[in-house]
Design brief:
The complex is a heterodimer of chains A (about 325) and B (about 260). Chain A is about 40% helix and about 30% strand. Chain A is of the alpha/beta class and about 325 residues long. Classes of the chains: A alpha/beta (about 325), B mainly alpha (about 260). Chains A and B meet through α2, α3, β5 and α4 of A and α1, α6 and α14 of B.
Chain lengths: ~325, ~260
């Protein structure tokens, strides 16, 4: 469905020389390698999380895949098209939702924008009605569609954005930080909607988000990108097994442990009765049985390292490696 | 044919929404119309003033001068009415909402050029047409051939204006500047308010062949008065075709250079 080979994007950026005359008449530009020979493919019905720090190249990749930006090099094939050609047959099969931007007409109701999209995407009446009804019921927002966009809250507006973007039944959905700036309830509503929608309608979704909870909850496959390079491409489960060397043990103690105990284990936090320890993954069984002998506790839980920490480590290690290469 | 009908249907929908958005801001409507009437009256008065002391203005009588002025206003108002969306292009680029336009299966240029039809200009256009026809019938001699040539040169002017506006859009992408380019365009076109023969030959040639403002505003009334040679008529059509071709090339170049990375 999506095939990318050696995808490269170079931005030309002007930089200040701190000299007014030079800045006006002898302006200098530098080239920034935004994407460095990316290779990946995405199959039908996949939900892929694209993550990385700011400026890593996530949005640039999605914008090239959707035809907004022209690539500087490489081969791209999305649904059999070269996206930048912007063929209507291609554009009718994709959609793009951007968390901080809206495509809806500010002064008018969402329904007006939906009707405009109906004409632009040439959606027939029956399909339009069906899709609108499916989407409004999934998002629980049928009462909002006739209100002016300017009178809606950010969360409500995002729901309308999603309807406008999904009305034409796209095959590929690009989601660029769809939950950014939303309160936790709206974030949850959007996540639940995306999960149900993908499950029910079997779409290919590519999601970027700075909230790792979004990726954790929704995507099965993860692509981590840093400084324009893919540094991990695989399943979310695998990333923990591959890169997480530690686990966290949380205990609810019955009695205070001895002073020697604290010398023996790597304690992250202790506030009686709560104790948090960090242990190596391969020693987990041994340590748990040791703990049963050494201290008295009411409750014990063993957790994987948080995904955020694992990803931070991968990115940090990659940066260190690059520095010394 | 089906495609034209489809695009027209969307154009009317954009126009309807544009009208509804315009009517939401009543004070804006009042000041816009007031400003237009004031500016038009001022220049009309200026022409009266000039002719109160002279019989002829570089060979043009009062009716001819008025027709030149009205032709300028007709073209200027009609192009503003149709291309109003171009004036709003910069915020679209800066905010990144231009991305959404690029993603729609609807020709990007059509959306950007014709996506914001301005009904307030249409309100101004009606009295202008009335005045134009009133003075047209004051002319002592007009023939059918002159009228046809005038009509085609009006369309030609519209094509040149389209090219100007496409270049402005391309500049919007390349340099995120639209307002200044529009300001320069409007200042240069304002030379067309008066018969071109009142300007020096060097300026006249510059405004005709380098920046084809003369072809836009001066050629149609000249054709109407029977003062335009066949050779110049052909040159006028060639200029519009070349400018349209060049502007489309610049537009395609700008689209490839469009660079907005992050969200």
């Amino acid at each position: 469905m999506i095939k990318v080979k050696n995808l490269t994007k170079i931005y030309q950026v002007y930089y200040r020389q701190n000299n007014l005359i030079k800045d006006i008449f002898f302006r200098k530009y530098k080239e920034i390698l935004a994407l460095d020979r990316l290779n990946f493919s995405i199959k039908e019905n996949e939900f892929v999380g694209f993550i990385g720090p700011n400026g890593a190249g996530k949005t640039t990749t999605m914008k090239i895949l959707s035809g907004i930006l022209y690539p500087s090099g490489g081969e791209i094939n999305v649904l059999g098209f070269f996206p930048f050609d912007k063929k209507p047959e291609f554009l009718k099969q994709i959609t793009f939702v951007m968390g901080q931007r809206n495509q809806l007409i500010w002064d008018l109701s969402a329904m007006d924008s939906f009707l405009l999209n109906k004409e632009i995407y040439e959606i027939d009446d029956a399909l339009f009605k069906k899709n609108l009804s499916d989407l409004t019921s999934l998002l629980n927002c049928s009462s909002l569609i006739n209100k002016p966009i300017k009178s809606l809250s950010l969360g409500e507006r995002m729901k309308m954005e999603l309807i406008a973007a999904f009305l034409h039944d796209p095959k590929i959905i690009f989601l660029d930080e769809p939950t950014i700036g939303l309160d936790i309830f709206s974030q949850e509503a959007i996540r639940n909607f995306l999960k149900t929608y993908q499950k029910e309608f079997r779409k290919t979704i590519i999601l970027t988000s700075h909230y790792l909870e979004d990726v954790n909850r929704l995507a099965k496959r993860l692509i981590i990108i840093n400084k324009g390079k893919i540094i991990y491409d695989g399943s979310l489960k695998n990333i923990i097994n591959l890169y997480s060397k530690e686990k966290t043990i949380r205990l609810n103690l019955e009695k205070q442990p001895s002073k020697d105990f604290f010398k023996k284990y790597s304690v992250i936090n202790y506030q009686f009765p709560r104790l948090i320890l960090k242990v190596k993954r391969d020693q987990i069984n041994q340590i748990v049985s040791q703990l049963s002998d050494e201290i008295e506790y009411v409750d014990i839980t063993v957790e994987d390292e948080p995904i955020e920490e694992v990803i931070k480590k991968i990115i940090k290690n990659n940066e260190i490696r690059e520095k010394y290469d | 044919m089906k495609k034209i009908y489809h695009n027209l249907k969307i154009f009317f929908l954009f126009s309807r929404y544009s009208l509804r958005s315009t009517l939401d801001h009543r004070a804006g409507v009042f000041f816009f119309l007031f400003g237009k009437i004031l500016r038009f009256s001022f220049f009309f008065f200026l022409i009266f003033l000039v002719f109160s002391k002279n019989q002829l203005l570089n060979g043009y009588n009062f009716t001819q001068a008025i027709i030149v002025f009205l032709t300028f206003n007709l073209i200027d108002t009609a192009t503003q009415m149709v291309f109003r969306e171009v004036y709003r292009f910069r915020p679209l680029v800066v905010s990144g909402e231009f991305d959404f336009i690029l993603l729609k299966p609807y020709p990007v240029l059509l959306r950007l050029l014709f996506g914001g039809f301005d009904f307030l200009d249409l309100v101004v256009l009606f009295p202008l047409c009335f005045l134009f026809f009133y003075f047209l019938f004051q002319l002592p001699s007009i023939n059918l051939f002159s009228l046809i040539a005038f009509f085609f040169l009006l369309i030609n002017a519209f094509l040149i204006s389209t090219s100007f506006h496409i270049i402005v859009l391309a500049m919007g992408i390349l340099f995120t500047t639209v307002d200044h380019a529009i300001m320069i365009y409007r200042d240069i076109t304002s030379f067309g308010r008066f018969p071109f023969d009142i300007y020096r030959k060097s300026l006249r040639d510059f405004l005709t062949f380098i920046i084809p403002v003369g072809v836009m505003f001066s050629f149609p009334p000249k054709a109407l008065f029977g003062l335009l040679s066949f050779q110049n008529t052909i040159i006028a059509f060639l200029i519009s075709l070349i400018s349209l071709f060049l502007s489309l090339k610049i537009w395609q170049f700008a689209l490839k250079k469009y660079q907005v990375g992050g969200n």
